[in-house]
Amino acid sequence: MSLVLVANDFVGDAAFTGFGQVAPVKRKREWRSDGVQYDNWQEQFNQVSSRPRRHWFINWAVLDEAARDKLVELFDAARGRYDSFLWLDDKEYLASGELITTDGSETQYQLQCTYYSGEDYEWTEDKKDIVPGATYAPVVSHSVDGAQTEVAAPPVNANEFSLDDATGIMTWPDAHPPSAGVLTVTFQYYFRVRFAADVFDDLQERPGLWNASDLHIVERIS
Predict the structure, then answer these.
(1) How far is CA 220 from CA 54, 178, 194, 207, in A?
(2) How far is residue 145 from each of residues 127, 149, 177, measured CA to CA in Å?
(3) What is the pTM of this model?
(4) Cβ-based neighbour number of residue 38 at 10 Å
(5) What is the domain partition of the chain in residue ranges?
(6) Which of 15, 28, 98, 122 could cross-link to 70 by cystine, CB 3.0-4.6 Å?
(7) Which residues have a Cβ under 8 Å from the Cβ of 161 and sit 6 or more positions away?
């Protein structure tokens, strides 16, 4: 089970009455390498991870009673670090002009984001938790032999695609796959995260005001 809760909205706007800061105060990128150090101090490293994992340390430094109750509810709904939920990063949330090659026969294509395209250290990530069209409609165009046409976003008619917000998979009807060419896609996405610990520090600064600074959440990749 994964919670379809966006932490920013669940704890933030609806619960705050003028207090707090929802932007993270610190981010970390975690790569994984195996290393060996020899007697002469030479080192050898092997790459283990093909992409980084992200961490956020969130500053909800001053919360009113309503916001504090929502944050505790989110922690309990996730059962500590057991379950995942959604986080909208205010610096990394937009995939713009991503290119997906179509072969003329496949009807399903995964939304992806490529980082440092064209560099020898580029990597690609599947994006599975997409900001829904009701909030932000993805923009999709299809290019065949250089001629580009925009594809209507969901809801769809018989010749257009549907998008599963949870999986990030675009699907065309079996009878109408996109012809061989290139899809150009711009969309917004969430990160799926979990709490980094099973213990929550519930700190009351003064009557009616609570502190949840440096709260650690970590990306959960599936």
Answers:
(1) 9, 32, 6, 35
(2) 27, 11, 17
(3) 0.87
(4) 8
(5) 7-88+191-219, 94-188
(6) 15
(7) 140, 151, 154, 170, 171, 172, 178
